[in-house]
């Protein structure tokens, strides 16, 4: 239930806090005092669109906050868990709208988007106004009424889960068929490209070594000539480096007896001589192995040309990318060759899913058909209590051939308020007051079967008076035994039924009009209801009438 509503900087409200009670809460006040403004503010924390032009002060942000007691509603706790929301028995919804129109929403101080805020709001409060009777002609709402009385929420949830899987599988099937058709059309092309790459017998790491080998083969004569020259300077020439180093070592050897440091230099020079001999030997070996080989050069060049052409053709830079492409082509070929098997398998699964859905839809349909007479009977009984004893509600049921998200049932409410008149769609044969009473009877019926914490009626009593108004109040009073009811009314018969009564009024303060609200005491209720009966200055008879309505 809605425990408290806080409104800051909205329309004629600068700062307002309202605490609501269980049972039937009544809001009264003069036309234009701000009763609907309060509902407008409440709608903001239920996910409705906001406009900054309705701010009390255009320089400040608007903040609306609602505190809800939701303990005991297990479906709400599971919804919070499914959407990763922090659950608390005392849940707070808050909406902040800045002057530039930017909006932020919070649930228990966790930021949420408006879609999620609206989903939570729909589970907490049902607002019904005198202008919302169009909902009664909505096939979705009509089916919801039947489902509520049928009490097959678990069955319907199971059906809808499987229906989503069924639709997803059908989408996958269409994609698979399209991909298969394309793969088959391109099969020859894919096979040609794959064969070409497979024949190339590529190695991911061969390109760089081949390029180095070709470079060496193309420059073999120069390499051989320079290696011979280097070896000549190191070992074979008349003044070869090794000969001179050996002679230097002999001269140092002759002097080492005079100075130990010279001996160390001699040893270091001998190490250089050994290293230079090794370099000379390796240079000689490289020279001997360096040969001009035009056949090998042609072979390597041909291999590299093939690699370059394949890379250019497929717009890649490496053999690794070519091999990846080869694998992808192989997968496409396999898909083309074996896609029919995958399609057949998925089609069988879809057939099985459809069969299961049809069985569940039959169960749903049976429950709905069983519930329809009860709905017709209970709604007409409630209407009779509200002065519409000749009203007839007939619910037409039709079984469709195609599965939908709700099964195979098509529901249509047909109505007449007068004896001897043909049944028709409700909006065509019912007045505003009759539609209001019809919606009230339907809402009261739904409330017996669903766990909705709060329902709000905004002047739903329009078009009724006298004893009918008294009956409407009694229906609301009965409804409030199962859930919190908040109703805005101008009728004393209904206002007297409330367990809590709130008066909305305008207050002119420093040349600024503000909307205020207060909870009335017992004596204040008597006076307010007396005013609703006879005007601003009620006489003793009006006051006595008010006491009688209040059973005081």
TrEMBL record:
<feature type="domain" description="RecF/RecN/SMC N-terminal">
    <location>
        <begin position="1"/>
        <end position="508"/>
    </location>
</feature>
<dbReference type="InterPro" id="IPR027417">
    <property type="entry name" value="P-loop_NTPase"/>
</dbReference>
<dbReference type="InterPro" id="IPR004604">
    <property type="entry name" value="DNA_recomb/repair_RecN"/>
</dbReference>
<dbReference type="InterPro" id="IPR003395">
    <property type="entry name" value="RecF/RecN/SMC_N"/>
</dbReference>
<feature type="coiled-coil region">
    <location>
        <begin position="159"/>
        <end position="186"/>
    </location>
</feature>
<keyword id="KW-0175">Coiled coil</keyword>
<feature type="coiled-coil region">
    <location>
        <begin position="315"/>
        <end position="370"/>
    </location>
</feature>
<keyword id="KW-0234">DNA repair</keyword>
<keyword id="KW-0547">Nucleotide-binding</keyword>
<comment type="similarity">
    <text>Belongs to the RecN family.</text>
</comment>
<dbReference type="Pfam" id="PF02463">
    <property type="entry name" value="SMC_N"/>
</dbReference>
<keyword id="KW-0227">DNA damage</keyword>
<comment type="function">
    <text>May be involved in recombinational repair of damaged DNA.</text>
</comment>
<protein>
    <recommendedName>
        <fullName>DNA repair protein RecN</fullName>
    </recommendedName>
</protein>
<keyword id="KW-0067">ATP-binding</keyword>
